[in-house]
Amino acid sequence: MRVTKDLVAASATPIVLGILAEGESYGYAILRRISDLSGGELDWTEGFLYPLLHRLERHGHVESSWQAVAGERRRKYYRITRQGLAELAEQQRQWQTVVDALKQVWPSIGDIRPLFNPLEGTA
Amino acid sequence: MTITNGEDELQDQFNQWRAYVRRRPELVASDAEELEDHLRGSVDELVALGLNADEAFLIAVKRMGGLDDLSREFAREHSERLWKQLMLTGEPGDEAKTSRSRRDLVAMLVCAAGAAISIKVPELFGKRYDDSGMFYALNMTLFALPWLAGFLAWRRQAGPRWYGVLAALFVVGAVVANAYPMSEDSKSVGVVATHLPLALWLVVGLAYVSDDLRSSRRRMDFIRFSGEWFVYLVLIGLGGSVLIAFLYGIFNAIDVYPDEFIWNWLTPCGLVASMVVGGWLVEAKQGVIENIAPVLTRLFTPLFTLALLAFLVTIGWNGSGIEVNRQTLVLFDMLLVVVLGLMLYSLSARDPQAPRGPFDVLQLALVVSALVIDALVLYTMTGRIAEYGTTPNNVAALGENIVLLANLTWSAWLLLLFVRRRGGFAAIERWQTAYLPVYAAWLWAVVLILPPVFGYR
């Protein structure tokens, strides 16, 4: 199964903010976490994640700092800000609305079947 | 192979990869570092799974995907990085470059301040800027260009002999401007005032090429420098006039009239200082920002070609001759200068190895039509040349015409050979750079010899 591009794009911000709400993290770990959370179905590229993180930083939802790890290497850690938490709450509210609506029109996944055959009635 | 060797090799590979990433304008140093950390995370994980360092590195790089896609994604978020910014104090991170550009900045500030101060010195001897028009018209560039030449010579670490030669030439210029007994309404004053700045500009050129006098490439660099410098000077001038307009406006609003400050201090000091600043800007930005002069020539070469062709067609249609007097001769001189400039600056930006294209043909058309027009002008003048050559002005105008005509005729020939695949492009470039001393000789001759020959009339 592949999640469509639009859906990935729409869900990216709440997912990243949600992960950072658990505690500060860095790019590679965030990517691993997303992969774990989705059972490997959400496979983001680096070209998607890092610009997103930079955008969130520009908007002030997250802040970053360089920390030394293992020898001379430095790693860029991201932390959610107060404004980011507010954004996350807002996103959660919106997603909840969407999920609630979806649950009502899709009572259970097995019930979905065509209401009529689209080929009928064209004659 | 020991483990440390593997580590070293891996480090090498990371270094190469980082250098490769840094070549992308969209990815700055901190991005490269962040991505490298990511890559290392990936490699570490693969190594933990049992792969060796080499394999892990290859797979990790492969997983990251093409750098093209990566930089495209980064560019979407950081579009400002595609606009090259002029870092006046060097790019952060590059120590040697940063300290070099700092020293340049300081030297430029010293020279600009020197120029600004030196133009106020004559006031100590009663030469006020607003009522010694002739003195400043003759001497203006003498207050600015020596400082610019000094700055350039300093940047090129020229030897003391160079400084001596440059100083001597500027002194000669100063002597002509001040010791020649020319009256304010003589023709000679006009000739010196228009030719001396250009002659001195070529002295600046001497300072510019002081590290390699005979190199054609270096002289072409000076031609590029001149074009960019001029563009910067015009831009600084525009900015300066906006500043002046606001100064006037806001101080008038509180009933203070800053005329004295603006016309006696800001304008002269700003003018000479901006000449130095312009030179520094061109030096600092070299290769960072697209050159603007060649862009302008690309825009205007077709338009000028059309205009000149239309002019020729109109002459042919009406059968009317060109009415020649001194004004029109100067006008046609200027036209030749413009055509030469258009050619020079498209040459300066052209890749010498590129094959001939339609633009080269266009250029040939431009040069040939300018030549035909000038031939018409000179033809109408034949027989009256003696009559024309009686004042220094006319001799100068006529001489200029001949100097430019000679250059353009040979250029047209070389261009024709080039367009017809008989000659190389390099010949055109060499011809133009070899011709620079001719301008210098002519300009200095006009400045030095014409006034005494005509008895300073």
UniProtKB/TrEMBL annotation, chain A:
Residues 16-90 form the Transcription regulator PadR N-terminal domain. Pfam families: PadR (PF03551). Signal peptide: none annotated. SUPFAM superfamilies: Winged helix' DNA-binding domain. Gene3D superfamilies: Winged helix-like DNA-binding domain superfamily/Winged helix DNA-binding domain. PANTHER family: PADR-FAMILY TRANSCRIPTIONAL REGULATOR, TRANSCRIPTIONAL REGULATOR RV3488. This is PadR family transcriptional regulator.
From TrEMBL, chain B:
InterPro entries: Perm_prefix_1. Keywords: Membrane, Transmembrane, Transmembrane helix. It comes from the Bacteria. The chain crosses the membrane at residues 105-122, 134-154, 161-182, 188-209, 229-250, 262-283, 295-317, 329-349, 361-382, 402-419, 431-454. NCBIfam families: perm_prefix_1 (NF038403). This is DUF4153 domain-containing protein.
